[in-house]
Amino acid sequence: MRPEILFPLFTSVSTLKGVGPRVAPLLEKLAGPITRDVLFTAPTGLIRRSVTTVDQAVEDQVQTFVVTIDAHYPSQRPSQPWKIRAWDGTGFLTLIWFKGHGPHLERQHPKGARRAVSGKVERPNGYASELQIAHPDYIVDEERAGEIPEIETVYPATHGLPSRTFRKFALEALARAPELPEWQDPAWREREKLPGWREALAAMHAPASEADISPLARPRRRLAYDELLAHQLALAQRKASRRSTPGPRIPSGPLSDQAEKALPFKLTGAQIRSLSEIRGDMASGERMSRLLQGDVGSGKTVVAMLAIADAASAGFQSALMAPTEILARQHFETIAAPLQALGLSPVLLTGRDKGAGRSAKLLALADGRHHVAVGTHALFQDDVVYDKLALTIIDEQHRFGVNERRRLQDKGEGVHLLAMSATPIPRTLELTVFGDLDVSRIDEKPPGRTPVATRAAPTPRVPEIVDRLRSAIASGAQAFWICPLVSESDKVDLRAAEDRAADLARHLPGVGLVHGQMPPAEKDAVMQRFVDGEVSLLVATTVVEVGVNVPNASIMVIEHADRFGLAQLHQLRGRVGRGARESSCVLLYDPPLSEVAQQRLDILRRSDDGFEIAEKDLELRGGGDPLGLKQSGFPAYRLADPVAHRDLIAVAADDARLILARDPQLTSPRGQALRMLQELFDWKPASPLNEAG
Ligand code: ADP
Ligand code: MG
């Protein structure tokens, strides 16, 4: 139940003064549906309006003057501006309005009236004597000059809802914010000199200086910590509740030893470590929730297979789920033979299974004849029943919704979860993305891989690249050509990808196109033709499946490489370099390349370690989401900046752990204040936001 004291913040934005049916949807889009969302929207900057006189005015500054209206110069034609000449005793100031402003200006501001005006000061044509303001931000009666703020926060704006209007709403939301009991640890607050919650909000929305709105300023750090703590607390609660659920005890068994001995290679140290962590969890009697992280090609599937063999040794079934049919099939092909050699029976189950064939598979899963099911969403459909499911392995876990993952896990009692991800997340951010999972990292590549030769090239060099592709394809190589898609619904980008495919098809044989708006079956069909070698050059938007293994593909071209996060580029590059051929990756960019973009691409050229790349990218990060974190399930923070506040993440995680250790039910006074915090951010243990397991 939400405490009453928070009600004023959980009202619809339309309850704010001046928010009518036209503005409400705009405000919802910029901030969110409720007053709390407006309150939690941080200003992006600040304008200072110093009060001055014409003779002291500074060009290009936003300044405020008190003037007398001296003359109107109406526009002669609609294309001409309306001008007002004003005088402040030290000089003249011309106020200018373009288009659509007419005689009402003369009625509102008659000759002789005293006005305070504010706006950006310009000197047209460089004439020192001519000072003007085009479209003043404010022009009010002299007595109301006090209403013009000296410091004005700037907010996100949109057509029809300017920053200044947003500011009014933010200040009203601030006025509604109650004093709340303190949930942060007093000793910590004192050490960091953090203000109280309400005080911090006031400093953010009504700052005394630029320093107050910087993410590094104490008010912002206070608010960021609140958000991180709310999130970490929810993750820790979720982890604790899962820990307290018993899971089937699975000791390491003879089958997996046998399977390991049969491998044509030795496990890497990182694989051995990860496997023993997984075994520790499965043998503990508690339910496992573990993430296995490792670059593409680092050997996660083998580790998963050995865990499956352990489960089978103990008489349990496992399910391995992948986001697409083609990935499921590849997993099946990898693990089926080794498992069969152990006398186990794996089965592939996808949307393609229909009718009698499907019924037979389901029957054999239900009576336990199949020990392992590999598949897609088909694995958790209602009529799929397992005899003794004890282990679910989810590849590319962020590609599944929470409910999908849960539906599979609910097919057994206390089913162990092993999630796998190839998205390199910097260590510092790991806690925010996977805070409710235990993490094993495979940070070592199997021996004998040759790094992919990576270089950057300007887009005008495409014809040369096409020439080289032609001879590579003639000698039997295959290639990827990646086009960026900002969002899967972006029509312009989609057209660009289609045009590129059509253009390449004019010059090269065997060109195929795959993109996110294709029906899954069609997508899989094109991918399959690529796997089978019928397609030589696959033009793809970023939907190109991260796990797909096409050893014969040795060239990767990425268009607009500067639009991708480094981690994403690294992942894409991981598609090649898996076979015997020398592999290369070309990063295309539109010249000129900014210095930061150059540095980012250099990192990629020099390093082949996903974690290192992600960490470096974080340091160089500009605006936006260059790490591609949103796609990997990164939480949408409002006040915390995962880069600027990264030092706070680990502190908040420790804090959350300690809080739960001392007060698991949150009943102490601080515990109760923390519940308030969770309500405030809607980050409660059961909320679906960013749930990894
Ligand atoms: P991931 O799932 O992490 O992308 P895979 O498990 O598909 O990686 O492994 C990629 C390739 O490396 C596979 O062909 C696999 O057989 C091989 N491999 C895995 N572990 C080792 C190892 N320790 N030594 C040599 N090759 C390995
Ligand atoms: Mg894989």
- In helices, the fraction of residues equals 25-40%
Question: What is the CATH class name of the largest domain?
Answer: Alpha Beta
**Strand content of the residues, in percent?**
15-25%
Q: Whole-Å distance between the termini?
A: 25 Å
This entry's quaternary arrangement is single chain
List unreliable stretches of 5+ residues. 622-627, 688-693
Bound molecules: adenosine-5'-diphosphate, magnesium ion
* CATH superfamily grouping of the largest domain: P-loop containing nucleotide triphosphate hydrolases
What count of domains describes the coordinates?
Answer: 3
Strands side by side in the biggest sheet: 12-13-11-14-15-10-16
Radius of gyration (CA) equals 31 Å
What would you call the shape?
A: globular
Largest sheet: 7 strands, parallel
- Annotated CATH architecture of the largest domain: 3-Layer(aba) Sandwich
**What is the number of E strands?**
22
CATH topology of the largest domain: Rossmann fold
Overall average pLDDT: 89
What class would the helix/strand composition place it in?
Answer: alpha/beta
User: Tally the helices: what do you get?
Assistant: 23
